[in-house]
Predict the 3D structure of the following.
Amino acid sequence: NAGVTQTPKFQVLKTGQSMTLQCAQDMNHEYMSWYRQDPGMGLRLIHYSVGAGITDQGEVPNGYNVSRSTTEDFPLRLLSAAPSQTSVYFCASSYTGTDEQFFGPGTRLTVL
Amino acid sequence: KQEVTQIPAALSVPEGENLVLNCSFTDSAIYNLQWFRQDPGKGLTSLLLIQSSQREQTSGRLNASLDKSSGRSTLYIAASQPGDSATYLCAPRRVTNAGKSTFGDGTTLTVKP
């Protein structure tokens, strides 16, 4: 049982580039979410999904896209990277929206 | 909007001391509250999940309490050890918000040998 996995661990982008952060879980969890963590601002919800084919926006969705074609995977796409998106990104999952959440190890992204 | 406050922001104690971390939240309509620890450069590790119907939850040297009506939770750490040094975060999960969690900024704990 690998839990929640994220790739890559580190990434450096130039302004305007696009990329996809990968998140996968092997616990058959319906609920998955993406957070960003910035110093002094805590963890903020970007997007979340309550099941395959269903996604919704969180607190800070602008500049990010998500899709959920399978229960296991929940990729986060940066459409045109900006320096303001420099952050640490965490993916989390839980069986439902009311159960214990499990977090991945994070992706540290720097946008130059 | 749910606001979560954790006090103190930082705490330094000698090894062996018992300590209490505080978490307060403004919207008491929650399903549960989860406590996490985060080591520097790492992800969040779940410590305890306390349901809204519970008043306490225990795991080893950790004990979490929840007073939903007053919007407060505490995390009690007994006989602290240097390995407990980390940032501790609380996250209440709201009933009315599709299960979204709101996180506090955390309490950074340092336990000195």
